[in-house]
Amino acid sequence: MGTRRFRPNDEVMVIAGNDRGRSGKILSFKGERVIVEGINVRKKHMKPTQQNQKGEIIDIECSVHISNIKPFVDGKAVKIRARFSEGKKELYYKDGEKEISHRFVRK
Question: Rounded to an integer, what distance in angstroms lies between the CA atom of residue 15 and that of residue 93?
């Protein structure tokens, strides 16, 4: 699968689907899908149990495919690119003509 361009707690923007244009933080990964805070929220009906005497309806965040999100930096979605510098893999993005370093990735 290679190195990921995203990490938990990264701010991302959804670029496709019902929540297009909304942003949130990455909570977790599972394969090529991510769970983003406040995105793709579904209702789940819970039956009454010994611990929970009353049944309830809860909101849960479902996963989104990694191709449907973009990094969200300084109030806008950016395209992250990779290059090797100083023997390390560096992720960067362009802001106009300037190339701004996002972070280094371990090899």
Answer: 17
1 within domain boundaries: no
Q: For residue 78, tell me if it sits in a domain.
A: yes
d(CA 16, CA 84): 30
Q: How far apart are CA 80 and CA 5, in angstroms?
A: 8
Residue 92 neighbours by CB distance under 10 Å: 18
Residue 107 and residue 88: Cα distance in Å, rounded? Answer: 7
Q: Which structural domain range is residue 19 located in?
A: 11-105
Q: What is the tens place of the pLDDT at every residue in 36-63? A: 999 999 999 999 999 888 999 999 999 9
Q: Is residue 74 part of a domain?
A: yes
pLDDT at residue 107, rounded to an integer? 58
- Please give the tally of structural domains in the chain: 1
Q: Whole-structure pTM over 0.85, yes or no?
A: no
In a domain, 4, yes or no: no
